[in-house]
Amino acid sequence: MRKLHQIGAALVLLLAVAAAGIAAPGAADTEKTPQAKALRANWKAIADGDYDGYKKTMTGEAQSKMDAQVKEMKKTNKEVMAFMKVMAPTDIQFKDLKVDGKKATLSMTGKSDGQAMKGSANLVDEGGQWKIADQSWSNAK
């Protein structure tokens, strides 16, 4: 009976370690996820100045907010994308991904004007595609 308890305890420990490995992929594994690919597509659209491509990476709600902001600022899509390109962090690395059903949060680091930054992005699965609901960045201090 004691041997059975030891085997059971070992099994529980093994399952816990395996579950932790699934829940928290390494940075290289995170890069391959659909959530990371959605963010990379978003950043590529910003770098290319592609407003329509940028909007395609965003949730429907985020798209509506973006259109309203562009209209309110009385700027062209091209002007907005140029501003976003200047403000976008560089040297971005994914640190942590948490997925809960159709929602995910991706933690990142990057740089802005040589200063270390921390960021996070909230994503939502809309119609089988991961879309960005929002992302935020702040200095790492």
Keyword list:
globular; disordered N terminus; 141 residues; four-stranded antiparallel sheet
Give a topology summary.
Blueprint lengths: L1 H22 L3 H5 L2 H15 L2 H6 L3 H14 L3 H11 L2 E11 L2 E10 L2 E12 L2 E11 L2
Antiparallel strand pairs: 1-2, 2-3, 3-4
Describe this structure in words.
- The chain is α+β, with helices and mostly antiparallel strands.
- The protein is 52% helix and 31% strand.
- It has six helices and four strands.
- The chain has helices at 2-23, 27-31, 34-48, 51-56, 60-73, 77-87; strands at 90-100, 103-112, 115-126, 129-139.
- Strands 1-2-3-4 form a four-stranded antiparallel β-sheet.
- Strand 3 and strand 4 (129-139) form a beta hairpin.
- The longest helix is centred in the first third of the chain and has 22 residues, at 2-23.
- The protein is globular, with a radius of gyration of 20 Å.
- The protein starts with a helix and ends with a strand.
- Residues 2-24 have low confidence and may be disordered.
